């Protein structure tokens, strides 16, 4: 039976959440007559306080966001809010999180949830003040973005730490290897997803992409408040806000919606209704991936440790790829965006002898990153098409790239695209701040 033919549920409800003094948050939801429970086990210790009103306020926001993994199993038209109600801002936020955050899910499954309505009693915000005694907490995924943020955010700030979320009992090697290089302490949470969602196919649930960065953001805030950090600093760059030309649920499809500016703005507003004293922003919001790549090129200690291939991050540890696959959209993008600033021999070492730009069979993957008239960019965490075209023009000009036939062919393709109205932004433009952001005055980027 195809997903589109499966029966939608009737009602999804936020039942309750409970947070223990030792940092175990239990969130309970229901879909019709079925109950789902997710447990977030935060590492305590280090004088963390999981009992304060501010931590409970942050946990409430996480409870609201984490429900989307279970809502999507049946994607019903009615969502019933928690017993303490929703403020108007929270209700609007939840609707946006579902319509935008599940747009890719809806596009792929054929299940339109634009009829979603939210019912909840009124709630008057009463934010609690966090007690701050430490510097920034940086959610860390071991890729070039979070490594660059750590390098630029934590120097000289007392009490800075990393935040790592795991959905498995087995650590993710690329995250741990890069985290060790930073020399910073790590705050951790173990997400125990309800086992039923891991059996979605067998149980006949609807399944697909969820805005997981939104959930991780809220979990990081819980950890930050409990440990007294003054801010959560994300690593979401400018192009994350760019949607595809696809439409579902009446909105543009953006694989990275919960990494984008609209989510950041709305999340900050909802957070302020529940807890104050802890900031939340992306340090890379006004910057391009090319800007990130130029800075990462200088951080050579991380070059053989980091990994951005999604096949390294499967929940099932036995299914994880032991190194870069070298063929997926993400591998090709990382290779391309670094190629103007990192020597070919070093990139080949990073990809363990299988640099994507050396594989001419991958031309269609690279061409999709460059933007094809009438087609859409991959539904993946990759940069925008313009900066990919710029990366090609910069890389092909390197003397040490004269023996890369695929790159030469891509450069010719970029020239054709430019003639067809697809611009190639200048390097100078891409290496400067652009657009709205929430960086505070003391973030000296």
UniProtKB/TrEMBL annotation:
GO terms for biological process: cell division; cell wall organization; peptidoglycan biosynthetic process; regulation of cell shape. Its EC number is 5.1.1.23. Residues 306-419 form the MurL C-terminal domain. Coiled coil: none annotated. Residues 6-282 form the MurL N-terminal domain. It catalyses: UDP-N-acetyl-alpha-D-muramoyl-L-alanyl-L-glutamate + ATP + H2O = UDP-N-acetyl-alpha-D-muramoyl-L-alanyl-D-glutamate + AMP + diphosphate + H(+). GO terms for molecular function: racemase and epimerase activity, acting on amino acids and derivatives. One of its GO terms (cellular component) is cytoplasm. InterPro entries: MurL, MurL_C, MurL_N. Keywords: Cell cycle, Cell division, Cell shape, Cell wall biogenesis/degradation, Isomerase, Peptidoglycan synthesis. Cell wall formation. Catalyzes epimerization of the terminal L-glutamate in UDP-N-acetyl-alpha-D-muramoyl-L-alanyl-L-glutamate. Belongs to the MurL family. This is UDP-N-acetyl-alpha-D-muramoyl-L-alanyl-L-glutamate epimerase. It comes from Nocardioides lianchengensis. The gene is murL.
């Amino acid at each position: 039976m195809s997903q589109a033919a499966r029966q939608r549920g009737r009602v999804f409800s936020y039942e309750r959440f409970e947070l223990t003094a030792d940092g175990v948050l239990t969130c309970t939801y229901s879909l019709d007559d079925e109950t789902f429970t997710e447990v977030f086990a935060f590492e305590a210790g280090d004088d963390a306080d999981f009992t304060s009103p501010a931590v409970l306020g942050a946990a409430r926001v996480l409870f609201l966001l984490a429900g989307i993994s279970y809502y999507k199993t049946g994607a019903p038209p009615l969502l019933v809010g928690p017993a303490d109600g929703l403020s108007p801002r929270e209700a609007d936020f939840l609707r946006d999180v579902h319509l935008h955050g599940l747009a890719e899910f809806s596009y792929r499954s054929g299940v339109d949830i634009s009829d979603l309505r939210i019912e909840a009693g009124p709630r008057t915000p009463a934010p609690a003040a966090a007690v701050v005694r430490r510097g920034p907490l940086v959610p860390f995924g071991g890729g070039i973005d979070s490594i660059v943020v750590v390098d630029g955010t934590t120097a000289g700030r007392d009490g800075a730490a990393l935040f790592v979320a795991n959905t498995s009992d087995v650590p993710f090697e690329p995250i741990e290897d890069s985290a060790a290089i930073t020399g910073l302490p790590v705050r951790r949470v173990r997400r125990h997803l309800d086992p039923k969602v891991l059996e979605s196919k067998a149980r006949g649930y609807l399944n697909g992409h969820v805005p997981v960065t939104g959930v991780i953001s809220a979990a990081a805030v819980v950890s930050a408040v409990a440990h007294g950090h003054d801010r959560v600093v994300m690593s979401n760059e400018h192009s994350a806000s760019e949607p595809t030309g696809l439409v579902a649920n009446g909105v543009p499809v953006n694989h990275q919606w919960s990494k984008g500016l609209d989510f950041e703005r709305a999340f900050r507003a909802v957070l302020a209704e529940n807890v104050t004293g802890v900031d939340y922003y992306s340090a890379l919001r006004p910057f391009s991936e090319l800007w990130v790549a130029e800075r990462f090129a200088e951080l050579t200690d991380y070059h053989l440790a980091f990994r951005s291939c999604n096949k390294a991050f499967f929940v099932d540890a036995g299914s994880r790829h032991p190194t870069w696959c070298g063929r997926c959209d993400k591998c090709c993008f990382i290779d391309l965006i670094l190629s103007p600033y990192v020597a070919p021999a070093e990139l080949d070492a990073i990809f363990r002898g299988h640099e994507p730009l050396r594989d001419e069979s991958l031309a269609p993957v690279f061409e999709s990153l460059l933007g094809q008239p009438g087609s859409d960019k991959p539904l993946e965490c990759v940069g925008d098409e313009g900066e990919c075209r710029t990366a090609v023009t910069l890389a092909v000009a390197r003397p040490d790239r004269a023996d890369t036939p695929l790159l030469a062919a891509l450069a010719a393709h970029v020239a054709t695209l430019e003639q067809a109205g697809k611009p190639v932004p200048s390097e100078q433009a891409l290496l400067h701040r652009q657009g709205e952001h929430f960086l505070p005055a003391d973030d000296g980027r």
